[in-house]
Design goal:
Length: 394
């Protein structure tokens, strides 16, 4: 099993400057490689591949020993592969008939990660194993950087990445052969319904609240955005204002992830089988503004709903839940969400009128009344168990 471990770095001021220079040089390499591909195709109709650009890398390094030559060759190859992956995704979207989105040049705020594909090649995790109190990662051109290792690393470290978030630096370890940590069986099963009023409602009637982290920080974010709008572009004050806005958003992101981990762990510890709706969150949060010829309706209301869904972090929670369920040996089942909120859990009658409000469900056929989210969670559980039985019988 593969898992990722993220730790905060504690670089010195000199190391932080080297990390920033490393990130900037990899960004310049990415942009230069993109320009190479664009120019070659526009001028000569030639498609440049990853292999062509990787072969030229040694000459680039030789001509710029104090710049590109300082960093790991394999990390620069990883940056070129990142560009190649962007082009492959572009052509896949073209083939599928979706909006293509041609690969773009990376600005300073849109390139924040450098990857070393192999531990020991330009990088080394736990580079000072004999140190009695601290952990270190060694990065070529930077040195031994102290790591705040708040939990043990399991498995075999395969790749190492360094990411910048505002003024913070993180190291991300991707590990193979991570042993599973199965939990004892409980015999319990649960269906869950994702919502905005409550983040999760289970088929047992339990409600896990939605803390609305973005809404809680809305006033501070609004003040920071207004302060940013008054700053002159290119000024040092504007750079600091941008950093303040980014720091507030980063804090919200960390809060949302932390809450998702805690909520998912509680579910995994208490249930052997968990069933959830297979939600298409990107489709659910698509704008309702429409076009000039066919403007949308209830745009403001839809915008508010989209903001609430994204603030709840459904996608983050489901991703974390899948990882924890796999590690704990729990079974996770995704089912089609169609009509789960309109179907009566008692008689099976399906009607839009069954759901009177967001919270109240009353069947127009049998009169069954229940909390709407609990009713939907029960239907989700039944659909999941039916899929499970069909798969076992096949």
């Amino acid at each position: 099993m593969r898992r990722s471990f993220t730790f905060l770095l504690r670089p010195t001021s000199k190391q932080a400057a080297s990390l920033a220079a490393c990130l900037e040089d990899h960004r310049a390499l990415y942009n230069a490689a993109l320009e190479h591909r664009r120019t070659a195709y526009a001028k000569a109709g030639v498609s440049v591949r990853y292999g062509d650009q990787s072969a030229e890398l040694k000459h680039i390094r030789a001509d710029d020993l104090d710049g590109q030559g300082r960093w790991s060759f394999s990390s620069q190859q990883a940056t070129l592969r990142r560009l190649d992956a962007a082009f492959r995704a572009f052509f896949a979207r073209v083939k599928a008939g979706r909006t293509p989105g041609f690969p773009r040049f990376k600005g300073r705020g849109r390139f924040d990660t450098v990857t070393w594909p192999k531990d020991g090649d330009g990088c080394r995790w736990d580079s000072q194993p004999g140190h009695p109190t601290a952990a270190y990662v060694r990065l070529q051109g930077v040195g031994h950087v102290r790591v705040h290792r708040h939990r043990p690393v399991r498995g075999r470290v395969k790749t190492i990445a360094v990411k910048r978030e505002g003024s913070r630096w993180y190291v991300i370890l991707s590990c193979d052969d991570v042993p599973a940590e199965p939990l004892p069986a409980t015999g319990a099963v649960a269906g869950i319904d994702m919502g905005v009023a409550s983040l999760i409602t289970t088929s047992d009637g339990e409600h896990i609240g939605n803390p609305r982290h973005l809404a809680a920080s809305a006033d501070r974010l609004a003040n920071a955005q207004r302060d940013l709008a008054r700053k002159k572009r290119g000024s040092e004050r504007r750079r600091k204002a941008v950093a303040r806005v980014a720091a507030l958003h980063a804090k919200v992101r960390r809060q949302r992830l932390d809450y998702a981990h805690k909520a998912a762990l509680a579910l995994v510890r208490g249930h052997d089988v968990i069933v959830h709706e297979d939600l298409r969150i990107a489709n659910m949060t698509r704008s309702a503004s429409g076009t000039l010829e066919a403007p949308g309706r209830n745009v403001a209301a839809k915008s508010g709903l989209n903001r609430s869904i994204l603030d709840a972090g459904w996608g983050v929670f489901l991703t974390v839940l899948a990882h924890k369920a796999e590690s704990a040996g729990r079974e996770l089942i995704a089912v089609n969400p169609a009509d789960t909120s309109r179907t009566c859990a008692e008689c099976g009658h399906v009607a839009k009128e069954n759901r009177l409000t967001r919270a109240v469900f009353r069947c127009t056929a049998c009169g069954h009344a229940a909390h709407a989210d609990v009713n939907a969670a029960i239907n989700t559980l039944r659909a999941g168990l039916a899929l499970r039985e069909a798969a076992q019988a096949a």
